[in-house]
Design goal:
disordered C terminus, alpha+beta, Endonuclease, Chain A, Beta Polymerase, domain 2, four-stranded mixed sheet
Length: 305
């Protein structure tokens, strides 16, 4: 096939998606980005091979909607309205080429389109992910869905309609702690880890009036003036416009201005998400001297939220 010959010209390995469909995989690609690109390639291969009504769903729909994911599985999810009537060889292909089919009711309300491809709606996608993924991955999708404009009340209604299905209890908790203020998967995961560590639920995007003007703290506890700043790699690479040192200088100046207003700032990054204990100890220490009364009042506010 000419298309396969063209793909073979690029400096990459070829991955077979389905018979007749291949995708280049660059050995030097960033793992998370490469995984998303591979899933998108699998979507194209599956879409061109299907001859029945299906909607891409679960994590696959999240990718197609342009939403964040965490630890994305290299698999395509399809939802259809009836039990899949597939030939044995088709079933074998699904297994071999990492396609999972779901059979369930999908009302018109939960159907959408992204890039010309049928997908589940933002709200339905968020609920499907909240029921089936790990709680961390589910919260990343839920935060992003709400930032993208998903209707929280409709999400809650779809969860209620899923009563009796696997993962509904987790989905309710994920929605309860979801926050549109998270601006990256790293901020979502940092917030989740702090809650799981027993700290009161932090507020997101906290405004602080400084000598440099208004500045925002990623997340923290305003009453205690303890804040968390998440340093993602993108800040010093893609957003640095070729000058990461200048970005670091601005970050130091910004943090200094915030600390002049009586804040204690604890910085975190991806290593702290993977190995959080030391980071959580630093946060608890930041509360030292601020008084147990302040911490307790923050916890009470979090429970009432």
């Amino acid at each position: 096939m000419p298309e396969v010959e063209r793909l073979a010209e690029v400096d990459a390995e070829l991955t077979r998606l389905r018979p007749g469909f291949y995708a280049p995989v660059s050995p030097g690609a960033v793992e998370a980005r490469a995984r998303r690109e591979l899933v998108l390639a699998r979507v194209v291969a599956a879409w061109r091979s299907l001859d029945s009504d299906v909607w891409f769903s679960h994590e696959t729909a999240a990718v197609l909607h342009g939403m964040w994911t965490y630890r994305l599985a290299d698999r395509v999810h399809l939802t259809q309205l009836y039990p899949p009537q597939v030939r044995r060889e088709d079933d074998s292909w699904d297994h071999r080429f990492l396609v999972t089919r779901h059979w369930t009711r999908l009302p018109e309300r939960d159907r959408d389109e992204a890039g010309g491809v049928p997908v589940t709606s933002l709200e339905r996608t968020a609920v499907d992910c909240a029921r089936t993924l790990s709680s961390e991955s589910a919260l990343v999708v839920m935060d992003c869905a709400l930032r993208h404009g998903a209707d929280r009340s409709l999400v809650r209604r779809i969860i209620d309609e899923s009563r009796g299905k696997r993962g509904v209890v987790q989905a309710r908790r994920v929605l309860e702690i979801a926050d549109t203020g998270a601006e990256s998967p790293g901020e979502t995961l940092t917030r989740y880890g702090l809650i799981e560590a027993g700290l009161p639920r932090p507020t997101t995007q906290i405004p602080v009036l400084t000598s440099l003007g208004p500045r925002w703290v990623d997340l923290g506890w305003p009453a205690a003036r303890v804040g968390i700043e998440f340093d993602g790699e993108v800040k010093y690479t893609e957003l640095a416009d070729g000058d990461p040192d200048e970005i670091r200088r601005r970050e130091r100046a910004r943090q200094h201005a915030i600390e002049e207003e009586g804040w204690r700032i604890v910085r975190s990054g991806w290593p702290d998400i993977d190995h959080p204990h030391a980071f959580h100890v630093r946060v608890w220490r930041a509360f030292a001297g601020r008084g147990q009364l302040v911490l307790s009042s923050e916890a009470g506010a979090a429970r009432r939220a």
